């Protein structure tokens, strides 16, 4: 029996596919025997429409499977027997009911899409493949044998006019998943999938030496190794005219039998045939953040949960610490709904205090540095890593954060936006584990990973996404120091696989790598998920500044809606960020009434988890008005333009209608020309003024953008919010105090 694996060593492929043919010939009578041999249409490299001719076995081949099949054909054709060679193309299940015995060829890629392990296409959507159902191949074989054909080469293929595009493959899979109400239908939406260029695919390597790649990356690599020659090379189609004439049958169109094909494969689990298991408690959403830690402690208590400097807490240690802290809070009279403030110390104790308060059911307020607790706060707490909670009752109290619901168990977190004034958001206890489960599944985070976090605990992304995502997967969290060199050493020492931080974090890391490259461990082959305070971007270190720092410097992102998987795919005249939302969410643009070439409006996300209360941007039901601006292009892709932009009223620009697009265009030109790190554009008396952080002695200049003169002013540093973004309020104050600008 032939072996159809593409990755076999040549000697094994020859043993399975060539030696078996020689053994068969040795057993046959010497004369008057007709051999019907099934080969493959992909015998040797070629392009265009290939005719059914004999192949020179010495030509080049894509893999050892093709070479061995060509050599077996040559052995048969050189024998004394009559030989009929049948060359099918890519065989899938039956066209009548989708039934199949083996799940090879295209099925692994389809399964990876359905499971959410890959979010990219390894081919252009219009690239065509020749696909035939198994019953068509069987029908042709029987017809040609029954009609007495004794020699010839026949293509059992779909033919040039019935080839299937990659777009049709994905769209039919997506349509069938939707008809089945499958929870992963969103992961197969052609509009949400990136096209993975061959150059990028070639750079993907194992995340770290000695650490296996995550399932998602491994699926990409396997699919790339097997399918890359067929998906990235020139189209290969086949002339099936002679087969259609001889057998009297023609292959059906793929779109006609695709629903049966995908339905059977999905119901069969792509061959796993596992009996549906009863939902376990581990499969149910956790009740709160503390429950995530308890679950991880039950499954792998000795795995690292928190690490900072030379100290480390396992999940077992962390579970014991939060239990001790919760008991101590109960002794102080804390009951569900009691307002408790957590005072930041910048240590692992902050997280222990958060978990202890969460486990007690308190309404937790994460304070900013120097911020007094609200008047209604019962107590302020901090903790050490042992779980010992220190309770204080501050004399100085500040105003209570504006909340729609009071004394509701949950976590109140701050996000500064770009104004410098924190926006307080209450997340219900169950919302955090829910977000963590979705993000972990979307990003492929696993227990062997380490997540380095360079965000303060009070920031909504740190507590609302990073901690739940890591702990849902059983991954450890490494608290990174602020100093870039120390942070880089901590990343290397702890074998961190994911880094989370604001744009300054990555600019500092890039500088440290550039300046101290000779003393820094070789991390060029790591696959890092580099994140801003909102976006999360799988990338490699080679493109850290190009793919991350500059886009984030423009203010892209959306904290409240937890959009992830942002990739920079700009078009020549349309700069922006293409966003892939979390699985289970749908993202649209609210009409703004502005008639532009691409409608710019406020980004609306419909999410499966409860809408956070207490935010000014909350919509109706599960819809959230994010405060970001964006547009959907002709291909249905969402481009988020950034949170800086809503402050720019349309009447502040000369012509008003394209102020949003013009601001981005100006800042992109300035960032490119000056190699600037940050850029912030305002309109003064109808003229654009851009403030930049840039190296060099030049303090002021003018640039031309789309025929308009733009004044550019160099400042040593643009003012930041507590989480590292440009503060619009502070910029306004800077402009009012003009003597501070160096013109």
UniProtKB/TrEMBL annotation:
Q: Looking at the record's lineage, which domain of life comes first?
A: Bacteria
Query: Which keywords does UniProt give here?
Result: Ligase
Residue ranges of domain AMP-dependent synthetase/ligase in the record: 294-377, 400-609
Q: Which InterPro entries match?
A: AMP-dep_synth/lig_dom, ANL_N_sf, ATP-dep_AMP-bd_enzyme, FAR_NAD-bd, NAD(P)-bd_dom_sf
What Pfam families is this protein classified in? AMP-binding (PF00501), NAD_binding_4 (PF07993)
Q: Which residues form the signal peptide?
A: none
Recorded GO terms, molecular function?
A: ligase activity
Residue intervals of the Thioester reductase (TE) domain: 2-139
Q: What is this protein called?
A: Acyl-CoA synthetase (AMP-forming)/AMP-acid ligase II
């Amino acid at each position: 029996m032939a072996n159809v694996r593409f990755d076999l060593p040549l000697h094994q492929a020859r043993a399975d596919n060539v030696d078996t043919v020689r053994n068969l010939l040795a057993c046959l009578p010497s004369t008057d025997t007709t051999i019907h041999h099934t080969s493959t249409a992909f015998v040797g490299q070629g392009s265009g429409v290939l005719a059914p001719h004999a192949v020179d076995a010495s030509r080049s081949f894509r893999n050892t499977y093709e070479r061995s099949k060509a050599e077996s054909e040559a052995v048969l054709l050189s024998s004394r027997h009559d030989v009929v060679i049948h060359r099918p193309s890519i065989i899938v299940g039956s066209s009548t009911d989708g039934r199949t015995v083996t799940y090879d060829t295209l099925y692994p890629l389809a399964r990876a899409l359905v499971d959410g392990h890959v979010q990219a296409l390894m081919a252009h959507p219009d690239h065509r493949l020749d696909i035939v159902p198994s019953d068509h191949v069987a029908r042709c074989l029987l017809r040609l044998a029954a009609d007495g054909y004794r020699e010839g080469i026949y293509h059992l293929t779909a033919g040039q006019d019935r080839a299937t595009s990659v777009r049709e493959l994905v769209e039919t899979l997506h349509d069938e998943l939707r008809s089945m109400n499958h929870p992963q239908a969103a992961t197969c939406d052609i509009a949400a999938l990136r096209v993975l260029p061959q150059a990028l695919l070639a750079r993907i390597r194992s995340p770290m030496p000695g650490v296996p790649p995550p399932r998602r990356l491994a699926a990409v690599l396997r699919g790339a190794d097997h399918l890359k020659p067929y998906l990235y090379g020139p189209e290969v189609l086949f002339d099936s005219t002679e087969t259609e004439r001889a057998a009297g049958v023609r292959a059906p169109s793929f779109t006609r039998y695709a629903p049966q094909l995908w339905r059977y494969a999905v119901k069969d689990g792509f061959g796993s045939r596992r009996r549906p298991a009863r939902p376990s408690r581990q499969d149910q959403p956790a009740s709160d953040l503390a429950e995530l830690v308890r679950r991880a402690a039950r499954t792998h208590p000795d795995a690292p949960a928190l690490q900072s400097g030379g100290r480390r807490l396992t999940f077992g240690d962390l579970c014991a610490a939060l239990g001790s802290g919760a008991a101590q809070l109960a002794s102080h009279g804390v009951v569900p709904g009691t307002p408790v403030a957590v005072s930041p110390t910048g240590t692992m104790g902050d997280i222990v205090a958060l978990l202890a308060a969460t486990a007690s059911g308190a309404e937790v307020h994460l304070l900013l540095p120097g911020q007094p607790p609200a008047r209604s706060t019962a107590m302020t707490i901090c903790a050490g890593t042992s779980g010992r909670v220190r309770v204080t009752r501050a004399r100085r109290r500040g105003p209570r954060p504006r909340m729609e619901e009071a004394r509701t168990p949950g976590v109140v977190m701050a996000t500064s936006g770009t104004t410098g004034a924190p926006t307080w958001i209450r997340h219900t206890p169950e919302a955090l584990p829910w977000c963590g489960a979705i993000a972990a599944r979307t990003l492929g985070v696993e227990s062997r990973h380490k997540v380095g976090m360079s965000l303060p605990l009070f920031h909504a992304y740190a507590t609302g996404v990073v901690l739940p995502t890591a702990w849902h997967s059983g991954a450890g969290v490494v608290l990174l120091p602020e100093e870039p060199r120390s942070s880089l050493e901590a990343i290397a020492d702890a074998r961190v696989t994911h880094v989370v931080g604001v744009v300054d974090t990555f600019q500092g890391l890039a500088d440290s790598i550039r300046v101290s490259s000779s003393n820094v461990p070789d991390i060029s082959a790591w696959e890092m998920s580099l994140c801003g305070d909102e976006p999360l971007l799988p990338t490699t270190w080679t493109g850290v500044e190009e793919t991350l720092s500059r886009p984030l410097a423009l203010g892209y992102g959306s904290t409240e809606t937890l959009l992830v998987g942002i990739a920079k795919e700009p078009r020549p005249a349309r700069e922006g960020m293409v966003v892939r939302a979390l699985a289970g969410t749908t993202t649209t643009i609210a009409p703004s009434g502005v008639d532009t070439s691409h409608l710019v409006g406020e980004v609306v996300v419909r999410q499966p988890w409860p809408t956070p209360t207490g935010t000014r941007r909350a919509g109706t039901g599960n819809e959230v008005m994010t405060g970001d601006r964006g547009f959907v292009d002709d291909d249905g892709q969402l481009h988020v333009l950034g949170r800086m932009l809503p402050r720019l009223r349309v009447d502040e620009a000369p012509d008003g209608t394209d102020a949003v697009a013009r601001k981005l265009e100006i800042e992109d030109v300035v960032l490119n020309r000056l190699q600037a790190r940050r850029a912030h554009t305002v309109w003064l008396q109808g003229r654009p003024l851009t403030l930049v952080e840039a190296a060099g002695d030049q303090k002021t200049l003018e640039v031309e953008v789309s025929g308009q003169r733009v004044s550019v002013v160099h400042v040593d540093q643009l003012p930041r919010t507590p989480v590292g973004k440009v503060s619009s309020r502070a910029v306004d104050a800077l402009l009012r105090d003009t003597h501070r600008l160096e013109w």
